[in-house]
Design brief:
Order of helices and strands: HHHHHEHHEHEHHEHEHH
Largest sheet: 5 strands, parallel
Shape: elongated
Helix content: 55-70%
Distance between the termini: 38 Å
Strand order of the largest sheet: 2-1-3-4-5
Number of strands: 5
Mean pLDDT: 93
Structural class: alpha/beta
Number of helices: 13
CATH class of the largest domain: Alpha Beta
Length: 285
């Protein structure tokens, strides 16, 4: 995977953007012509990086950040207010950065009541129908002695996955969701995505059951899908795995067949990464 694409889709571009905007604010305090030119360049690159990262911070926060930044830009014509405005920009963007950091930390899971796991996914999990390919749920089952109920299916959207769940009895104390990519890249609207994901998580939520969901890597300007996924994860107590985790798998050499669907090596890598996340749930057995 192209390093720039990875940097953007993983959300790490937001941190780069914040750093560049803060640098621009500091450079604005200098009177040298070179510093002023570097300030403009740093600011433009920072805004672009933050925007294309699709970081799903609340819109009200983006509004405040935008207003404060605009005031700072206008203050360049008023020397007395320039310093205060620059510090305000630094402060508000640091707040955004600090609010985003927790979403990039891998969540922990609690011990499960049994060595069983239900997996809900699309073709990234189910594979493309090649019988010679051992998918990552099957690898987990074989290598770690876990009974895996695999409900993944090629082409599934969140809505289709919910129908599959409603038709199936799920008894596993731990459910992993790798779903939503076909909604993101297809014709599903954000309103439909929110409704369907809320219904799916409601269907799965049960006392004593843990839900773990892979965060969707987002193309530029797809903030709303990420905002919905994070909000519903909080609502239903779902542990959301940062999108960089999945991206780190498909970014590996030979891990995919077409930049998205996993090769046999990709399924092996996926199984290893997923096990690192889920292993604490089964360590007491």
């Amino acid at each position: 995977m192209n390093p720039i694409v990875y940097h953007i889709a993983s959300g790490q571009a937001f941190f780069t953007g914040v750093a560049l905007i803060i640098l621009a604010a500091l450079l604005s305090l200098r009177e040298h012509r070179l510093a002023r030119r570097l300030m403009v360049l740093s600011f433009l690159l920072g805004v672009i990086a933050a925007a294309v990262s699709s970081t799903p911070l609340p819109w009200w926060l983006y509004g405040i950040m935008g207003v404060v930044t605009l005031v700072w830009l206008c203050s360049g014509f008023v020397k007395k207010s320039r310093r205060a405005a620059a510090y305000a920009v630094i402060g508000v963007w640091l707040v955004g950065l600090l609010l985003e950091v927790p979403s990039h930390l891998t969540p922990g899971v609690k011990p499960a009541a049994s060595r069983s796991l239900t997996v809900i996914g699309d073709s990234v999990t189910a594979g493309l129908g090649d019988e010679a390919t051992e998918t990552w749920p099957r690898i987990l089952e074989r290598t770690h002695g876990i009974a895996v109920q695999d409900l993944s299916h090629v082409g599934d959207t969140v809505s289709a996955a919910r129908k599959r769940v409603m038709e199936t009895e799920i008894e596993s104390p731990l459910v992993l969701l790798e779903i939503g990519g076909n909604d993101l890249l297809g014709s599903t609207t954000t309103a439909q995505f929110e409704k369907n994901l809320d219904a799916l998580l409601s269907e799965l939520t049960s006392p004593g059951r843990q839900l773990v969901m892979l965060e969707l890597p987002l193309p530029p300007f797809y903030h709303e899908f990420g905002r919905i996924q994070r909000a519903l994860a909080r609502k239903h107590g779902v542990k959301l795995v940062p999108k960089r985790v999945f991206l780190s798998i498909i970014a590996g050499g030979g891990a995919t067949l077409d930049s998205i669907h996993l090769s046999q090596a990709g399924h092996q890598n996926m199984a290893e990464v997923v096990w690192q996340i889920l292993a604490p749930a089964y360590s007491t057995d």
